[in-house]
Specification:
The protein has no helices and 13 strands. With 167 residues, it is an all-beta fold.
Length: 167
């Protein structure tokens, strides 16, 4: 799940962008962050919809009113607030919904089928799905993802690896 970082009382705060809804919970001067892609794997993209052109991204206006956000984009709001978008996500258990493109999905650790309704965890780096149940703790079985080598810390153990720095 993506985040918006901002300073509050001299401390960095990461606000999670809603994964379940099409619209994120952040708006400013008529600008909205929208979710533009989703799959059963939990991967999604986000974009800024700003028809009034009041938010600048990395110092540039959004002339077309729509801009896909990239990891670590800086957003300067019309009221002077600075926000940073982070595409980084943490492992979190979800129910596998399945779908035509996900039929026959297999766990890379145990190589077993992942059935609809099963609790799974997506690797935060590459998005591959693992079983995540007491009887099949495939995600946390080893500290590295079988596919990409990314960390497979138990949900709740991991922390975000990036945050903006004050200049």
């Amino acid at each position: 799940m993506a985040h918006l970082w901002y300073l509050e009382d001299e401390e960095w705060v990461a606000e999670h962008l809603a994964a379940e809804r099409a619209l994120a919970e952040w708006t400013d001067d008529g600008a909205t962050i929208v979710r533009i892609a989703s799959s059963a794997h939990g991967q999604r993209g986000y974009a800024l919809l700003d028809l009034a052109n009041r938010v600048r991204i990395n110092g540039e206006g959004v002339a077309t009113g729509f801009r896909v956000l990239r990891d670590r984009d800086e957003l300067l709001c019309g009221d002077g607030r600075r926000l940073w978008f982070s595409a980084e996500s943490l492992a979190e258990p979800i129910r596998f919904r399945g779908g035509s493109e996900e039929e026959g999905t297999r766990c890379p650790r145990c190589r077993g089928n992942i059935e609809v309704g099963t609790t799974v965890v997506a690797c935060p780096v590459c998005g591959v799905l693992y079983h995540h149940a007491e009887e099949r703790p495939c995600f946390a079985f080893h500290r590295e993802c079988v596919t990409c080598g990314g960390p497979t810390l138990e949900p709740g153990e991991a922390t975000l690896g990036w945050m903006p720095c004050r200049l």
